[in-house]
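re: that chain from earlier
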Amino acid sequence: MELININGTNLEVRRIEAAGAAADRAPLVFLHEGLGSVAMWRDWPDQLCAATGRMGVVISRRGYGRSDAIPDVRGAPALRDGRPSGRLQPDYMHREAWEVLPPLLAHLNILQPVLVGHSDGGTIALLHASRHPVAACVVMAPHVIVEDLSIAAITQAREAFQSGGLRERLARFHADVDGAFWQWNDIWLSEDFRAFDIRAQCRHITAPLLAIQGVDDPYGTMAQIDQIAAHAPHTRLLKLPDCGHSPHKDQPLAVNTAIGEFLAHLP
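^ sequence. v structure.
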């Protein structure tokens, strides 16, 4: 693990040097879910790097894992020493995709990554690919619109965090577990976020794109990836039965096989 300073913020990064990985192939860059971190991916990134013959980079966004915390995460949005503090705004994933990820990739000397994003990370991957060159984009359970089902599940997550043991489970993975949870939960349950919609941005994605969704995902329906394909018709879809919000955990063989085949002939 290492900390890399981007725009005055220390971000947790783990590099994966897969045995036999080809130096001339685009590395996999893993972007985590709304409550994720470097550690919460466990060893799946290592498995996928080994299976695809590519190096990898796993990142914790600000406020997650061992990355710098966000001050006053439930307070009014403000700038402290030139850095945002307080509650996230409805465009927080746009900012991650367009303001944080480009300088981080430049620091890592990654010109055209294969982005592998899960949930919020999938949305960030789509937004980044809509403006910046990528070798390919793999998104699992991404969010392009806000559904009632998503809000219901996130409301249940709030209850589980306050009284159901979720806080204790997450505390193993985040230096500031309260900040990690509330920055995500508060913005998703805010009235302003109901208008979140990145379908227009998906029209600008020209890179190869694989979108994966579980049939039993409590956070999103097939409308999410169907809408991606409607606006980026070259998208390849994978709809998995007996699969919830984490396809790489619920159906690892199917996911790894699909990603391996998708990337086999790409740089």
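The radius of gyration is 17 Å.
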